[in-house]
Specification:
Blueprint: E1 19-22, H1 30-36, E2 41-45, H2 48-52, H3 55-63, E3 68-72, H4 81-85, E4 97-102, H5 104-119, E5 139-143, E6 155-160, E7 163-168, E8 176-179, H6 189-208, H7 227-249, H8 254-274, H9 278-290, H10 294-308, H11 310-322, H12 336-349, H13 366-374, H14 377-380, H15 391-398
Parallel strand pairs: 1-8, 2-3, 2-4, 4-5, 5-8
Antiparallel strand pairs: 6-7
Helix pairs in contact: 6-7, 6-8, 6-10, 7-8, 9-10, 9-13, 10-12, 10-15, 11-12, 13-15
Length: 399
């Protein structure tokens, strides 16, 4: 179904992690971190909720007197390309840095603005991998959720023409990030649940990605699963699985918030060096069709994607199942099926949708979902099983 590219496979792995400051109280390091890099004029990009709950003001108070700061606090959730394009005339390009403060949408908005403020045009001009022609205004990320891991990645995600797509370039990877679990302590349970499922799937699909020995060289570091990404993905999965339910049910647990912040951060670093797979490709397509939160769409697509990949990934499913014991204890008898069963149980426990029909899709929508999924080449090139004609039947059955 997806033709293999005539490209050279490589045994070389490239690591490109940006600087990160992590831990409770890390936000206090923000002024020195910015000054160390010579930034003097910064545009903060955030959303109305971050302004409402006081995180924006807290950040402004820290930066007062040390930098010239402007604020754009209208970044929408699940942004469309037009949302970014409409702002390109509002700000000049004479900022030293853009600071994305918020969840994945705010951070992605900052990355997208950096592209068009530097290189002009519209966001849709940069859909192809590596299409950003050169460096952009440096982006600094301060996440306030534990989900996208956007503070570590080379992609900005948005919806265009009804399909959730992305602009991907190593030039877009943030220059530095400040990850402070304290900023997640007041998150509502629903936001914790939705963003946390995204982080969980990042860890899973990074670990399960096609081997880097089978992935052609690309303009971005979606190289396939490799020794660098596998260790990060496993530690991310362990941390998220041990913390996720508690973070949702008891948001005041500092231990759970720390575990989710660490897990989502490591998962972002992992998948930005490995790539993802079919679950994310399906979920991005579904989200573009129904405009639902990404984490919700991921849950709805989990069984379709992981069932399709089952035979290819049995051994790795068993490895992940081994980390699904109580607390930090590994299971002594993990099985591949247990991995999927436990995810289905988690989805039920957290009242997430288990299939697309729970979000309004019908069986007759399967061909459109498939068509939109095949556009997600950034994700499906590293899916462990090449996509073939059987996928439609998996989608029809799973809807």
């Amino acid at each position: 179904m997806l033709a293999e590219e005539d490209a050279i496979m490589s045994e070389i792995i490239t690591f490109s992690p940006a600087t990160s400051v992590f831990g409770f109280g890390a936000l206090r390091r923000l002024p020195d971190t910015l000054k160390l890099r010579g930034f003097k004029r910064v545009l903060i990009i955030t959303d109305p909720e971050i302004a409402r709950v006081g995180i924006l003001q807290k950040t402004l108070d820290l930066l007062k007197g040390s930098l010239s700061v402007e604020v754009f606090d209208e970044a929408p959730a699940e942004p469309h390309s037009r949302d970014v394009d409409q702002q390109k005339q509002r700000f000049g390009s004479d900022f030293d840095a853009l600071l994305g403060l918020g969840g994945g949408s705010a951070m992605d908005f900052a990355k997208a603005m950096a592209i068009i403020m530097t290189h002009g045009g519209s966001l849709g001009d940069y859909l192809e991998e590596g299409s950003v022609p050169g460096p952009v205004i440096p982006v600094v990320c301060v996440p306030t959720t534990s989900g996208t891991g956007s503070q570590n990645t080379q992609t900005t995600v948005f919806t265009i023409e009804g399909i959730k797509r992305g602009a991907s370039s190593e030039h877009v990877r943030p220059a530095v990030s400040i990850v402070d679990p304290e900023l997640t302590m007041g998150l509502p349970a629903t936001v914790t649940r939705n963003s946390g499922y995204d982080a969980l799937m990042h860890a899973c699909e990074s670990f399960l990605a096609r081997s880097f020995l089978q992935v052609p060289e690309r303009a971005i570091l979606y190289q396939g699963s490799n020794p660098f990404s596998q260790g990060l993905a496993l530690e991310a999965f362990r941390s998220i699985w041990a913390s996720y339910r508690t973070a949702v049910s008891d948001g005041s647990s500092r231990e759970a918030r720390f575990g989710m912040s660490l897990g989502s951060h490591l998962a972002g670093l992992a998948f930005s060096h490995s790539g993802l797979g079919l679950v994310h490709a399906l979920a991005s397509s579904l989200g573009g069709m129904i405009d639902a939160p990404h984490g919700v769409c991921l849950a709805a697509c989990t069984q379709i994607g992981f069932s399709y990949n089952f035979e290819t990934c049995e051994n790795k499913y068993a490895v992940l199942a081994g980390y699904m014991g109580n607390g930090n204890q590994r299971s002594s008898r993990p099985s591949p099926k247990r991995f999927i069963d436990n995810l289905v149980g988690l989805i039920s426990d957290l009242d997430l949708p288990s299939k697309p029909s729970e979000l309004g899709l019908r069986k007759e929508d399967a061909p459109k979902l498939l068509k939109n999924t095949l556009v997600q080449t950034r994700r499906i090139k590293t899916n462990p099983r090449p996509l073939d004609d059987e996928l439609l039947s998996y989608i029809e059955k799973g809807i």
